[in-house]
Amino acid sequence: METAEIVVSLNTLLANYQVFYNKLRNFHWNIEGPDFFELHEEFENEYNTVKENIDVVAERIRVFGVKSNFTFKKTLELSKIKEQEKEISALEMVRELLHDYEILHDRMLDAVNASLETGDVVTENMITGFMTELEKRHWMFTSFLK
Asked: Which CATH architecture has domain 4-68+87-145?
């Protein structure tokens, strides 16, 4: 089975997840305003989910006999999700999270497609599960902004 494309797509997903995780931690720590309590808790829920998914993706890469030795520099180079360096409002944080969800969704779709091309139903199933939860959370945070 040809796995190179799957590993590349998983590494890219992993890099994006790692930047997203760091961003979510910062949002959690720095949220202010009338939505503080709700968003503080929701950002924590998000980064805990992302932390679990990071580990699952990294371990799946190991199944293919590849090590994921990422430096911060390499992670930032591979990630389309960018760090948030300026202070932003609570609503801007949610908008940023939704934008990052779209990037993650695209990276997940790349991994699903690579998996389907090689008949790797295990990776496809794993990523489809991530996508199901991501789409649900996207709907919830979109509803929050209305």
From this structure: Up-down Bundle (1.20)
